[in-house]
């Protein structure tokens, strides 16, 4: 895990979104795991996502006078992840990863 | 198998958590002989036992209650722990591992509640990790579990065109069932309009769709030779399902819960009442679908169309559920299990389902709906 966190951290500091890709079958995931759920391989490589995805689901809530948008984003590479979106969005909207204080967030993309 | 029970629920208990446990244990002891208890099953969620976490919890609790156990177990699946403990206790007694096993579920929800957190966001106030990679996961602003269930509710609306009114109907009908439940803290009649005008917590879930964390314990004592006041039950169906992966990593859409798997093979035609886990309206709705009471997407319509009162065609959450009693220590399982046992023992007073023989209890656990337990108890 420590190795992986270092590799993820290096990519995040470059302003890119890291993910894990199964070397054998190509399955992708953001959340570290020991074994590929598709082909049972232990071999993952850390990859860089293009950062492009769409909103799978989203909610908003208020805390301390601020409105937050909390979502599941479905990435072009096939994996899904929890993330904050910086502005209102609806399911299906195109979004792009952005980095604020080395924290990945998503911004809506105008088409 | 004989089951005795006792419970106490408080919005905020002023004493310590063990004082609260002691109160409920003394109540149980007034109903049935407890000096011969020789087993303890225990469950607990983080941040619900006063200021510190318990080291060797089952030892501490049995020592405090004066139990000399032949069997000790701790379970950590949250919501459905109560059902699993009861099932395992029945099996252990049948296997001769102990004569009388006490199942303890509860604690204080008020401590985290007053800080604005829950057992699922406890890592923000206490040294807990939610995943082995919190550096990657806990970088978001959320209000889990409500925000996670809100994502599910919005996805459900998107995929199946379900409505806020449908979910609100669940609050309204459960409130009606709570009217004759002496343990309910919310009993005044409720309308769909009131639910939909209550404060938004996490879009689309509103205040009156969200359980209120309280303090309390549910105790269940299991044994063949119980004396005094008990209910005779047998387990007709029991199945667990665990989906430990993160919901975004699941193949199935997030609108599915592991109840889809734990409920497989259950005979709904033979069930006279259902007690479904009700942390949120959407939780109840999803179980109705995943257990097969309605087709996927129609869980809300089920509540609009069916009479789910104790005298109705299909009674659901006959005591109004924890949406109306409050949720002790972030687990609804003890409350809904006790309701099922009261129904089977014919003790449900003004909310008794006439001629009830079998009750289905379904528990959902974990902020990410990782666990589901489906159990059918039959009254003897
Ligand atoms: Zn693979």
Give a written overview of the molecule.
The complex is a heterodimer of chains A (111) and B (380). Chain A is mainly beta. In chain A, 11% of the residues lie in helices and 50% in strands. Chain A contains one helix and eight strands. In chain A, the strands form two sheets. Chain A has a five-stranded antiparallel β-sheet, with no helix packed on it. Chain A has a three-stranded antiparallel β-sheet with strand order 2-1-3. With 380 residues, chain B is of the alpha/beta class. Chain B folds into two domains: 120 residues, Thiolase/Chalcone synthase (Peroxisomal Thiolase, Chain A, domain 1, 3-Layer(aba) Sandwich); 214 residues, 3-Layer(aba) Sandwich (Peroxisomal Thiolase, Chain A, domain 1), CATH 3.40.47.10. Chain B has 13 helices and twelve strands. The model of chain B has no long low-confidence stretch (mean pLDDT 96). Classes of the chains: A mainly beta (111), B alpha/beta (380). At the A-B interface, helix 1, strand 4, strand 5 and strand 6 of A face helix 5, helix 6 and strand 5 of B. The complex binds zinc ion. The site of zinc ion has 8 residues of chain A, from loops.
Number of helices of chain B: 13
CATH class of the largest domain in chain B, please? Answer: Alpha Beta
Q: What share of the residues of chain A lie within helices?
A: 10-25%
Give me the CATH architecture of the largest domain in chain B, please.
3-Layer(aba) Sandwich
Strand content of chain A: over 45%
Most extensive interface, residues per chain? A-B, 30 and 32 residues
Short description, anyone?
The complex is a heterodimer of chains A (111) and B (380). In chain A, 11% of the residues lie in helices and 50% in strands.
Highlighted features:
heterodimer, A: 111 residues, mainly beta, Rubrerythrin, domain 2, 2 domains, 5-stranded antiparallel sheet, 3-stranded antiparallel sheet, 11% helix, 50% strand, globular, B: 380 residues, alpha/beta, Peroxisomal Thiolase, Chain A, domain 1, 10-stranded mixed sheet, two-stranded antiparallel ribbon, 13 helices, 32% helix, 21% strand, binds zinc ion
């Amino acid at each position: 895990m420590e190795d992986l966190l270092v590799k993820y951290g290096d990519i995040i500091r470059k302003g890119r979104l890291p993910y894990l890709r199964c070397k054998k079958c190509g399955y992708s995931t953001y959340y570290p795991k020991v074994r590929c759920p598709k082909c049972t391989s232990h071999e993952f490589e850390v990859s860089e996502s293009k950062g492009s995805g769409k909103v799978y689901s989203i909610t908003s809530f208020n805390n301390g006078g601020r409105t937050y948008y909390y979502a599941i984003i479905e990435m072009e590479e096939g994996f899904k992840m929890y993330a904050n979106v910086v502005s209102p969005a609806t399911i299906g909207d195109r979004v792009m990863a952005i980095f604020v204080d080395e924290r990945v967030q998503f911004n809506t993309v105008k088409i | 198998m004989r089951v005795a029970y006792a419970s106490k629920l408080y919005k905020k208990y002023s004493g310590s958590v063990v004082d609260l446990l002691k109160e409920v244990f003394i109540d149980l002891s007034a109903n049935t002989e407890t000096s011969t208890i020789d087993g303890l099953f225990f469950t607990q969620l983080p941040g619900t036992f006063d200021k510190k976490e318990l080291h060797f919890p089952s030892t501490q609790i049995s020592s405090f209650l004066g139990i000399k156990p032949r069997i000790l177990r701790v379970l950590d699946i949250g919501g459905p722990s109560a059902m699993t403990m009861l099932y395992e206790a029945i099996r252990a007694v049948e296997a001769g591992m102990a004569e009388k096993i006490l199942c303890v579920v509860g604690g204080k929800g008020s401590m985290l509640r007053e800080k604005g957190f829950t057992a699922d966001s406890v890592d923000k106030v206490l040294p807990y990790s939610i995943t082995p990679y919190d550096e990657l996961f806990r970088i978001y602003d959320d209000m889990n579990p409500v925000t996670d269930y809100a994502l599910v509710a919005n996805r459900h609306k998107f995929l199946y065109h379900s409505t806020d009114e449908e979910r609100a109907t669940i609050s309204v009908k459960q409130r009606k069932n709570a009217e004759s439940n002496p343990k309910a803290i919310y009993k005044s009649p409720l309308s769909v309009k009131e639910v939909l005008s209550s404060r938004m917590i996490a879009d689309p879930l509103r205040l009156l769709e969200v359980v209120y964390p309280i303090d309390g314990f549910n105790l269940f004592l299991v044994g063949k030779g119980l004396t005094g006041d008990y209910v005779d039950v047998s387990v007709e169906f029991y199945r667990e399902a665990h989906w430990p992966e993160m919901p975004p990593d699941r193949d199935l859409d997030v609108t599915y819960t592991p109840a889809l798997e734990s409920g497989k093979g259950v005979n709904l035609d033979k069930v006279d009442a259902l007690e479904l886990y009700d942390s949120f309206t959407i939780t109840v709705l999803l179980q109705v679908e995943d257990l097969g009471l309605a087709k996927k997407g129609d869980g809300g319509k089920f509540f609009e169309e069916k009479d789910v009162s104790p005298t109705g065609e299909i009674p659901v959450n006959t005591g109004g559920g924890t949406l109306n009693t409050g949720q002790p220590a972030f687990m609804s399982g003890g409350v809904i299990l006790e309701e099922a046992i009261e129904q089977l023992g014919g003790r449900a007073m003004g909310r008794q389902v006439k001629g009830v023989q079998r009750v289905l209890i379904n528990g959902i656990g974990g902020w990410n709906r990782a666990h589901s337990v489906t159990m059918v108890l039959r009254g003897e």
